């Protein structure tokens, strides 16, 4: 990591995406030139209908997919083959299905996986695991196997697995899906308490409004709108144009935002 | 499939046998079974001694006899086979209750039954006193290739997830009034199996993405290492050593 | 289910252990070459699938039901290397966790059920796919043939092992006949399910059927509205299908020859066959077992030992023949065909220019 730290620029934004285009090998083009920038410490929602290319975009952020055109920079470091390990440490992705994310036999080993892969050992590793689990309130489940946990608990552990790597930016893919209201609120509290940059990919609009002051709308492979979440959600025409619908009875204008 | 942490055969406990490091137990059980298999079948008393040895281990591990006996049922198909051996084997024959039985076959049946039962009992004791996770660590420690340990570990982690998916698919089929009754329904079941494969494979791909997202580059980071003291080794190896003595006596007498 | 301890004598069990270890080592390398660092999660999930699908009951008739053994299915879906690994891991876990199959018999179980089944199935499948017209029904037919042959091949392999290291004398010739006979019946069930399952997968995700990769169309990429040849953006598994089975087949041939050598020297032993059938694989088709269990056994009269030796030797030869010659023959045909084709639709065509 020593060689790459000089590339890191503390003043650089957490994430810079410029002109990103990508087509899958089957010919299906998902991204048509995506541009946006996230400042350090921001919490931003990425909204968009199904099939807008949200997941494809996420997979570019840590180099699992590599752009056909355009660039992605994480804290000034371009995503590319030569810095892949460092990029993957900096960009923590929480996938939609916690069962995919929690692949180790116990919670502890799962949270330790990332830091251990980065070379951490012994007491330092243990401390890192404890800290990450405490931040999501799952410390007492350390020795349990993941599939003995409830869905909400599993999602929190999934967040911990990523936090343990002390990422520059936390990317969450549909964090609120399949959560009951209490788990949803608990997760929101956890996310609010973190001081990392958060990019939350979702079509849960109230959740976006609750947590993210700023939102991006990804539609047909480009950023169609970028602004304050409350204003975007209140723009009926914009919402309709991009197949975004608020839940029945929900009026973003009536919500006073805490965040 | 057993769960990730515990499994069907595992019995939670804090006995000295539970506390032994997994690789010592694996070694002990394997050595014991090898010794048993190498014992001449004519030394009937030797097998009784082996059974007594296992009984002692079961007592030390606080595994109740009923538990052990119930698990031995897995052997039943082979009992059926063993029963047939005296009828089909060749060589000298003897009349028992009016049936002509092969002496060789009788010995063969005894051989398979005795050794098979002891083998199963030893494995059951191992499984009853060792957590799954530990078994995997033990196997890794004993030099099973890490890739194989990883595959086994993923199989165990996702065995339940996939069995559960299969169960949900069955419920979905039955909810729509389908019940497989015969060969003509195989197509539907096979479609489920096909769908299950696709789901499993795609999950494998997603798991892989999740892994590389956290810095996986082909080898699992070592998080836990099991170690055993000399005392633990000698405690574990008491079983096969005692068995070896019996075996040597069996050959000598 | 699986061979227990004490069934096969210690030296032969050890030898089978060595064979199994060798085959697993070759498969580990092969799988790594194909799947690189995706091996562990993918093979692990496929092993979990095999494990789960063995619990899926296929009703036969009158309350009996069978289930898939999965060796052929694994071979066709994920290729011979990964297939061997998956089935081996399933067997290993069954032995250690469920006491299903003896620890000393693990080598025998892996050699027979993981290696022979998978390799034979894959060789037959791949061979037929190459020879038959490139259409979906050919895949189904090939899958059926592969599975139907793989099961008796495993039975023959087991009989061979028993002929060499069985612990009781039973006439081996009849055993072989009975074993193979009964397993052909079981094989038909296995083959039907396998073919249907492969058909179901290929209808939805043809790209996931390893053995049929040659049938997918070449990929294109649209960059700013223009179609260009696809550079594989995601790591494509390196295609080694064309070479892989041959290597495994050679290994299998060598093993079989070694075993056959033993047979000619020792061909004295062996019982089981049938009941082994009933006991081991027989769970899968109780109906068939019981139907056939009596008739061949009735012939097991008091035959002369010399006669048994002779038939034992013959059995060895026949066994090797069944297992290997079929596979090699098919392969020879395939290779001949391949060399004639300028653009073989093999997996090696899939662009790999990352």
From TrEMBL, chain B:
Keywords: Cell membrane, Membrane, Transmembrane, Transmembrane helix. CDD domains: EcfT. It holds the Pfam family CbiQ. GO terms for cellular component: ATP-binding cassette (ABC) transporter complex. The chain crosses the membrane at residues 43-60, 72-89, 109-130, 233-252. One of its GO terms (biological process) is cobalt ion transport. It is found in: Cell membrane. It is a multi-pass membrane protein. It comes from the Bacteria. PANTHER family: SLL0384 PROTEIN. This is Cobalt ECF transporter T component CbiQ. It comes from Streptomyces phyllanthi.
Automatic annotation (TrEMBL), chain C:
It is found in: Cell membrane. The keyword Cell membrane applies. Pfam families: CbiM (PF01891), PDGLE (PF13190). Residues 246-336 form the PDGLE domain. The chain crosses the membrane at residues 7-28, 40-60, 72-97, 103-129, 141-164, 184-204, 248-267, 314-334. It comes from the Bacteria. This is Cobalt ABC transporter permease. It comes from Streptomyces phyllanthi. The lineage of its organism: Bacteria, Bacillati, Actinomycetota, Actinomycetes, Kitasatosporales.
